[in-house]
What we know:
About 50% of the residues lie in helices and about 5% in strands. The protein has helices at about 1-20, 25-35, 40-45, 45-55, 70-80, 100-105, 120-130, 140-145; strands spanning about 60, 65-70.
Amino acid sequence: MIAELAMYAASVANTYETCLDRQPETAEVVRFWNQHPDPATAICTSPEARANLEPQGLVWFSSSTWLPAVMADVRWCESRGDYRAENPTSTASGGWQFLDSTWRWVTGLPGSASDYPIETQDRAAAQLLDDGIHHWNASRHCWAGR
């Protein structure tokens, strides 16, 4: 139980550092231990986190994934936010319309993006974004300047 609590406390501390830019008080860790099996969403969607991260142009997506606000427009233009979307004329699928080859390249996972949970797709989009937003240039006419 002590080892489990220590791992949980470390997870909460990392999440606080990422989303709130500070370390938690001991009482905050205990409160999350009692109320939230997965504290990331509760912490990162709190008013304090929004106040810290939204002025930096970041928006909460899922599973501890904060992305630049423009990515909300990209996702809307690509799939209207439908993580099960499948393009009828290509292998593109999911909320971010990953081509199957790009999906495998970014994630190492088989199949199509639409086969996977939202959190997996959002993490993959964050990874691909590290290489540049140009990967979504096909829909740029829709999201640029929104």
